[in-house]
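Per reviewer request, we include the raw input and output of the structure prediction for the construct analysed in the revised manuscript.
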Amino acid sequence: MTTFDLVVLAFALAMDAVAVSLAEGLQLRRPSWRDALLIAGMFGIFQALMPVLGWVLAFWFADAVSTATPWIACGLLSLIGAKMLWESFHHDDGHAAAVVTIRSVTPLAVATSIDAAAVGVTFGVLEVDVAPAVVLIGVVTLVLSLGAVFLGARAGRHLGRWATLVGGVILILIGLRILLS
């Protein structure tokens, strides 16, 4: 796998995290740098760690994991998306922005990085140098997700409560896309 291939792979793997970061930004409306860095950092870390996990687990039970991962990702994203949909109808526009914590971001980071674990399985077969590959994947995800949080927040200020509705729909659609692909 060439460097160019790894860069393209890193961008492709980051897209789910970028979409979810955008949805989180829509919901936050005015994220602090701390919130944006926590979201982007968690996504970057999980996107970097999951290929390593996939690479290690590939030798033990790749078949069992590969059949369950789309269901797990779809379930997590759909639950979080449904919660956002519910909140869009049960809160007024003056409600406080969502609180960003490691606990609230971890399920999103796991759900968006499950496909990266599958990529890690291929690293062993293709004899990819894993360390630089996962660093690249993590950094690309972090940078793109950081920008997406702020872009989503800017759009969210204009959309009001509809931003939470849009964010929830985005998460559910990403979950369904993962399940159907």
